[in-house]
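Journal club prep — side note

Before the paper discussion, L.F. wants everyone to see what a predicted structure for a comparable chain looks like in token form. Sequence:
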Amino acid sequence: MSMKLYRFFLTICLATIFSISANAYESIAFHCDQDTTLINNLLQSPELKDMAPEGRVAFFAKKLVGTPSSLKSQILEADTMVFTVDVHSFTPLSFISTCVALAKAYESSSAPNWRDFADKYENIMFKRGEATDFVSRFLYPSDWIADNIFRGNVTDVTFNLEGLAARKKEKSIDYISHNKDKFKAFAKPENYDRLRMLEMGFRNHQIPYISNGDLMNPKRFNPQAKDGDIFFLLTPDFNLDSREMGILSRDGDKLLIIQLSPSKDTVTLEELPFENYIKRNVKRIQGARIIRIAK
């Protein structure tokens, strides 16, 4: 190939790459002007260098303590979906997805930035890694878990923790269709029809979990859990998998919870150790499923 022809093909390739890069981000909305700055600052934290991937998940979760809830505006009152980069307000699943996406973005480049985060966040927060419409957003934790395990983002370690007797609970998950009047988006027939198809896939769904007895025994559970493990607390509601979820943070021998608090509507580092939190709320918790970022 002549040098002239080589340069021509190189020019075409570079133009294509830059075109793809531009198009990849032109449809992303931002919560505010500070989003990209905050993301870049988080990804450039020097403490991250020697951490394990799950430790980075916990690190980012701590940095986001105090962030308010957007559950009402993003899920209950929304009737469309815009792919938004937002680290200033969360739903419970978007908080977890943000922490995992930040950890994944850090590993993806020698100089990670907000673009790496945006790619990872879309891949983790939306079905098949694509933000297309409202129903492409994960609405049930079990759906988030199954899809992200399939695509290699996380792993379920519930059955892999030594000395703990993991079990399975069977549930048909269709809470939203039974309460569709609470969700503005499902007034649209096309959204509701797709929701019902999704819920059909979760009939008689097998949910692995660790019993409350093991969770309330720190000598049994705490040595097996890692800083940055993700927990989903099973609810007794007959048609829902989980109402509470968050990230475990190790403080010496203690395990603490970082979650979007249902009572405070902000990301909160709970004062109670994990086992005491379970004890206090044991009537509305039926065990926990433990998920870990995949390496």
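L.F.'s comment for the group: The domain at 31-293 is CATH 2.30.260.10 (putative xylanase like fold). Keep this in mind when we get to the figures.
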